[in-house]
Amino acid sequence: MAFSEVVRSPAYEQVAHQLREAILDGALAPGDELPAERELCAQFGVSRTTVREALRALQAQGLAVAAGPTAPLRVPPARDLSTGPLRDSLVHLLRLGRVPLADLVELRCALEAAAVAAAATRAVARPRSAASPAVPPTTDDAADHLADARAALAEMRIVGDDVAAFEAADVRFHVALVAASGNEALQLVMLAVRDSVSAHLRDALAALPAPRRAIARLTRQHEAILAAVEAGDARDAELLLRDHVMGFYRGNA
Amino acid sequence: MAFSEVVRSPAYEQVAHQLREAILDGALAPGDELPAERELCAQFGVSRTTVREALRALQAQGLAVAAGPTAPLRVPPARDLSTGPLRDSLVHLLRLGRVPLADLVELRCALEAAAVAAAATRAVARPRSAASPAVPPTTDDAADHLADARAALAEMRIVGDDVAAFEAADVRFHVALVAASGNEALQLVMLAVRDSVSAHLRDALAALPAPRRAIARLTRQHEAILAAVEAGDARDAELLLRDHVMGFYRGNA
DNA sequence: CTCGGCCTGCTTGTCAGACCAACAGGCAAG
DNA sequence: CTTGCCTGTTGGTCTGACAAGCAGGCCGAG
């Protein structure tokens, strides 16, 4: 016969587990405040030390954030999880040499390519949010995001050789593009991946020998991508985006 | 003039930060034991409470693991970082974001399509791990993973109408396929996404009216995909995989 | 000589109680 | 109405303590 290993989990872990499940199941919605520490002590029947250790674990995972010095912890919106802990995990893997930068770039490429393809399909399916009146007017309409992308593009044309300003506009452009896909999951994962490689991107941009020319070239590529998306040409948009991302990575790294 | 906001970080955060940096910089190598709690108290000049909260945070991020009930924490090997916290982060993100199933499926599709395309390219680039003798014989060679996929495929052919067995083989097949891409990042994200949809997949499989026929059809699709990958036909492999995943999703949901 | 048992000193896990600083809200004086 | 204070509550930190588990050495019985 086979014996199963005895498992002993510390109290703080059980407390953390219960709180985590409550948050993930929606019993504690984003924006909600967690009960005060002393309150949790009473509910779980443990000391404050234990509760605090559990809270630190939740905090490290990004499932609870400190609202202020004396305010109770709050449940963050899902978006903060991608720019917070998920990005951190990727950065840790990068720094420890577990995953090479090239793999992350390839991942980003795949994600964003899928996003622009979806955005293109969506853009042509209902050009001006008119097709389905049954759906309430969602705030994140594809048209809005494409307008955002256009605005970012306009910014790029006037930044001259200010690489910092260009990079800010570049971020806005890519984020808007992915948002236009309407796929929340894609967007969240993409944000994290992009964030984790952004440090390298920044260095590459700063080291450009001829910023003005490079910026002009990148801006033209952006224009082409956006045009393809707006025209509903998924295949073209995907290819252009792949060229754009991989070209930049190869040319500078 | 502009004043910058005063930033106050708690002691436990500073302790966690220093330890984190030490680990990421390699000052504490994987496998090493962290100093005992009381030792850290002395070095940082804080109380054990503070040190313990910092350690819980590190633990939650996967940068330290408990070796035993009374043993000091250890720095985990890098591979545990990938399978643990990154996956948790992704699962949390997707659960908390209330991402619709369709979005997840689309995401999985994009990831896996990129993976098989890369695997196909790689398979034809060095068919039998001969091209680059400079590289030490990596244990996770593409050929090994493709062999794994073939083994899983063989299993599928003999499961009959045992959907549970088929699903196990299906998981092995897809995991092996993505592993063959050689892109660790892709693999990690893909595993987490698959985890998030696996419950739905299981239900869909269990509810099949004619399991035997469906299993046969799915197995044939798998065969076609693997054949395309082995032939180095990236484009074909990608299209076949998209059909496979989306077809199953649409047909059952 | 070997082996089981015991004792000691370490570690983590947990607790209770206390203090401080910072914030929020009510309240009174101007 | 504004200003300033006072107080209750919260998180952040410390202290000291105890239990439980593990590793190592020591010792006596066989």
Automatic annotation (TrEMBL), chains A, B:
**Which InterPro entries does the protein's record reference?**
GntR_C, TF_FadR/GntR_C, Tscrpt_reg_HTH_GntR, WH-like_DNA-bd_sf, WH_DNA-bd_sf
Q: Give a single Pfam family match.
A: FCD
Q: Which residues form the HTH gntR-type domain?
A: 9-78
Chain ranges passing through the membrane: none
Q: Which PROSITE patterns match?
A: HTH_GNTR
Going by the UniProt record, its keywords in alphabetical order are: DNA-binding, Transcription, Transcription regulation
Q: Which CDD domains match?
A: WHTH_GntR (cd07377)
SMART domains from the xrefs? FCD, HTH_GNTR
Give the source's domain of life in one word.
Bacteria
This chain belongs to which protein, by name?
GntR family transcriptional regulator
Organism the protein comes from: Conexibacter stalactiti
